């Protein structure tokens, strides 16, 4: 393949742009905020699960407390009615009064036991509420960190994307000035050779594979016509000759 020396040199400009686009793509993928957000979201999910469990426990103890208080109230009402009957003593035999006194005493003990249960439940509910408050604060704190990391990530991505857009337009302009057959070969080699399709021959060394050409290879390059598209014998990339090639 033949191409004007100026067209070949433009491949170096094109390669520089493609290298930069590759660097930007890598930078976009490897922003530290990506890993930070993933880790924070894991923490957030864990804290949310703990919060849901604490809220469920608080809700369960609230219902348990309501039921226990209702039990206390029922016993209290029953005891109040029995006490009224006992105080009046109307139409009651001594045996009935004795039985009623026993029942009032029994209800008083039952009420006391139930009130102890209520107190125990209230303590558990208070602990659950404190746990909910604590975990709510943790969730909010981690969520704030997530939001901050997402904002930093989005800002960084916007800057990278803007540079990608500018570089892509520059590439389109440079690529449009390269002959179609030369561009096709370059793109094919770039895809095959890890993103580098053309390399400068500098001081007898291929900047693509970093290997120095031996004397035979140098003589072949020296003998090639100025418009001949030469390839590195080692990496097979297009070898672009410049005044600094050392020929």
TrEMBL record:
<feature type="compositionally biased region" description="Basic and acidic residues">
    <location>
        <begin position="60"/>
        <end position="85"/>
    </location>
</feature>
<feature type="domain" description="CT398-like coiled coil hairpin">
    <location>
        <begin position="14"/>
        <end position="194"/>
    </location>
</feature>
<dbReference type="Pfam" id="PF02591">
    <property type="entry name" value="Zn_ribbon_9"/>
</dbReference>
<dbReference type="InterPro" id="IPR056003">
    <property type="entry name" value="CT398_CC_hairpin"/>
</dbReference>
<dbReference type="InterPro" id="IPR003743">
    <property type="entry name" value="Zf-RING_7"/>
</dbReference>
<dbReference type="Pfam" id="PF24481">
    <property type="entry name" value="CT398_CC"/>
</dbReference>
<feature type="domain" description="C4-type zinc ribbon">
    <location>
        <begin position="205"/>
        <end position="239"/>
    </location>
</feature>
<dbReference type="InterPro" id="IPR052376">
    <property type="entry name" value="Oxidative_Scav/Glycosyltrans"/>
</dbReference>
<protein>
    <submittedName>
        <fullName>C4-type zinc ribbon domain-containing protein</fullName>
    </submittedName>
</protein>
<keyword id="KW-0175">Coiled coil</keyword>
<feature type="region of interest" description="Disordered">
    <location>
        <begin position="56"/>
        <end position="95"/>
    </location>
</feature>
<feature type="coiled-coil region">
    <location>
        <begin position="97"/>
        <end position="145"/>
    </location>
</feature>
């Amino acid at each position: 393949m033949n191409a004007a020396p100026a067209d070949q040199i433009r491949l170096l400009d094109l390669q520089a742009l493609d290298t930069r686009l590759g660097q930007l793509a890598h930078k976009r993928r490897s922003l530290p905020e990506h890993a930070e957000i993933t880790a924070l979201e894991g923490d957030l999910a864990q804290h949310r699960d703990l919060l849901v469990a604490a809220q469920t426990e608080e809700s369960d103890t609230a219902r348990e407390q309501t039921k226990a208080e209702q039990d206390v109230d029922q016993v209290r009402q029953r005891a109040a009615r029995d006490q009224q009957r006992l105080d009046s003593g109307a139409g009651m035999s001594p045996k009935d009064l004795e039985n009623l006194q026993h029942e009032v005493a029994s209800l008083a003990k039952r009420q006391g036991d139930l009130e102890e249960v209520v107190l125990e439940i209230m303590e558990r509910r208070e602990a659950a509420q404190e746990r909910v408050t604590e975990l709510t604060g943790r969730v909010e704190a981690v969520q704030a960190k997530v939001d901050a990391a997402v904002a930093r990530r989005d800002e960084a991505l916007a800057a990278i994307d803007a540079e990608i857009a500018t570089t892509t337009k520059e590439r389109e302009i440079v690529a449009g000035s390269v002959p179609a057959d030369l561009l096709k070969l370059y793109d094919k080699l770039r895809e095959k050779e890890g993103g580098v399709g053309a390399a400068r021959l500098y001081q007898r060394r291929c900047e693509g594979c970093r290997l120095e050409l031996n004397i035979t290879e140098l003589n072949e390059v020296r003998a090639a016509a100025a418009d001949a598209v030469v390839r590195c014998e080692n990496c097979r990339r297009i070898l672009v000759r410049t005044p600094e090639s050392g020929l």
